[in-house]
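Repro:
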Amino acid sequence: MHRLLADDLAQLPDLLDLARDRAAAVLAGLDSRPVVAAGVRGGARVPDAVPLPADGVGAAAALAEFTELWEPHMSASAGPRYFGFVTGGTTPAALAGDWLTAALDQNANSSFEYGGQGLERQTVAWLRELFGLGPAHSGTFVSGATMSNFVGLAIAREWLGTRLGVSVAANGAAALGRVRVLSGTAHSSIAKALSMLGLGRSALVPVPVLHNREAVDVAALERELEAAEGPCVVVANAGTVNTVDFDDLRAIAALRARHDFWLHVDAAFGGFAALSPRHAHHVAGLDEADSICIDLHKWLNVPYDSAIQFTRRRDLQTSVFQNSAAYLGPLGEEPDLVHLTPENSHRLRALAAWFTLRAYGREGHREIVEHCAESALAFHAAVEATPGLVPLAPLRLNVVCFTLADDPTADRIQALIRAVSEEAFFTPTVYQGVPAIRAAFSNWRTTADDVERSVRALRAALG
């Protein structure tokens, strides 16, 4: 054994204590550190690339070097004023589960080792119940919403093949001919998934949305279905990125009585509305979907990377993703996880989710969702009351979309975001042709004080 490895193994408990203390210090300092660090701050520049050294320094020295050179440039994305994208923090229980995930170092894909698969299946069942889905839906953990959408659309692609009498898994996407994927306000990951699946970005057909909404016009969708030459795929949204708008899932599902299509629902973070009696009406009909995307490192507040995909057609899923090798378990009635996603191996992502669900239960996570929605409501009201700012859309759940009252150019939007980035982090967007800002509330740590502090930063930047 290499000398440094042997030394670190002998000192492992002390090294883990050092890492714990460093992690605790980072988390304790979230309130005071810059939310997004600049490339240069106080004379400290992002380190230049250096060649890999021939000789190592050991884990303790590596930790010290990281703390000095790189940690100052890390964002406070785990903190309460990181409103960019839709990024949850990490609950204490999820953090503990994630540390144990690394320590146990399980590949959860094989039934030769039951523990990982068993725990994942229990966690999937809990999540299915949490989101109000019936037993017909089966689920598997994946890395994020992009991969969840990819898996759902891959199953849809195989379903299209069954309608045309071909197997895409066996013969390739060319066997389908032209494919139409209909959606009102599709997330960018949908086009990316279609590209990866060989269906092509041009397969995505935009459908008109309701006036001043991002929700699809169901009548317009039916006209597109009537014009379709054969079966197609509909991607419905349960929570759009800019305004958290929701398609009418029940009305869309009802169209299947007259038209032949696969219904995939992108509920990456909007699906969490199901946890709250106040907001669950937004996702009425979610259980009727053929496949569903839900991103857990968003509003479940577990660490990156973690998402789940659900489907009613596990048989088609295994047709796409089965991996036949002598060293792998057979498909069987309860297929190994290796046969359900693109990954031949994945870390035990379910453990962090299991921990936070077991620790805080349905009520704890309902409170997180409702508290974030209340924080967004307070921020929305503050934007309305701030001269120079104006909301662009009604607040439906947890994302506030707003812009400058005068001359909202992309450059001015970016300048405002940069000006407040040490106090609060927002992301730019464009809504109905207007450059704008998104503030997404999904972190369990966010308080009323954080909302007020962020608003003060915006007002100060506006002068």
